[in-house]
Amino acid sequence: MGFAQDTIKPFIVKWVASSFFPDIFVPDGINISLGAEYNYKKKNSISCDIGYIINSGNLNNFIEDRIIDIGILKIKSNNIEGFTGNVELRHYFKRDKLYDAQVFIPPFWPSLLQLKNTKNSISGYYWGGNINYQFTSAKRNQSISNYPQPGYYDNLYTVNRSVIALHCFIGFQSIRKKGFVLDQFFGIGARFITSYSINKKADSVTDYEIFGFKEYDSGYKLVPSITYRLKIGWLFK
After folding, report:
1. What is the pTM of this model?
2. Is the pLDDT of residue 159 over 70?
3. Segment 152-156 mean pLDDT
4. Are 47 and 36 in contact (CB under 8 A)?
5. Among 31, 104, 123, 233, which is least packed by CB within 10 angstroms?
6. What are the structural domain ranges in the chain?
7. For the segment 36-76, what is each residue's pLDDT rounded down to a tens digit?
8. Rounded distance, CA 222 to CA 202, Å?
9. Is-contact 8 232, C-beta < 8 A?
10. Dihedral angle sign, alpha carbons of residues 130, 50, 230, 89
11. Is 28:80 a contact under the CB 8 Å cutoff?
């Protein structure tokens, strides 16, 4: 029995390369994230990622030295760890219609050959939505006045922080004949952020995150969000 050229090869394992970059929503931390995509129905797929957040250490210091005045990575912690979970639903466009339209749009020309050569239902351009959850626990220091005695002492406290995010996105997935996968998308949406502190003293300077929208150590806030994801993977036939 033969197989058509468009036979579905449904399972892709991916490394979320972009999650390794320092994140303005995870000060002092980087996220090591892996996932998979399953083609459950023709041009529709579901993708899931899980990640572990660790302290970025010297990598974060290297970047901060070059963007000191922006105020993105100025929230410091002694140690941060946590986890993330992400679920995406995708719908892939028909290749023939996209090819005809892109011939007249110069920015899309680099992807034309890949789009025409691919024989997989979950390659090419797609749109979709995702829901993401993130939890971090950060150890932080604060200097407390020793009044009425002179001087200050250090107090170590914990900040537990949760983020729920929703995005709509559009992207492009390239699948080479040997199985190598390159996937990236841009999206817009919103994030709901909550945080609370354990063992924090009142006498302390407040740090603000995300360009001053919210106190890092406590409170809650709904903020707009832009997301970009770059994934590298392998398709299993």
Report:
1. 0.77
2. yes
3. 82
4. yes
5. 104
6. 11-139+159-191+227-236
7. 999 988 889 999 999 998 876 645 554 444 443 344 455 77
8. 25
9. no
10. negative
11. yes
Sign of CA dihedral 18, 20, 22, 27: positive
Q: Which residues share a beta bridge with 84? A: 51, 134
The dotted CATH code for 11-139+159-191+227-236 is: 2.40.160
Integer Cα distance of 32 and 19 in angstroms: 6
CB atoms within 10 A of CB 116: 13
Residue type, 197: S
88: nearest Cα among 21, 17, 29, 39: 39
pLDDT tens digits, residue range 165-194?
Answer: 999 999 888 887 778 888 989 999 999 999
Which one-letter amino acid corresponds to residue 209?
Answer: E
- Per-residue tokens: 56: 């970025």
Q: How far apart are CA 23 and CA 186, in angstroms?
A: 15
Residue 141 CB neighbours (<10 A): 13
| Residues whose CB falls within 8 Å of the CB of residue 45, separated by 6 or more in sequence, listed in order | 37, 38, 39, 89, 90, 92, 122
The CA–CA distances, whole Å, from 175 to 7, 89, 184, 185, 232 equal 14, 18, 12, 15, 10
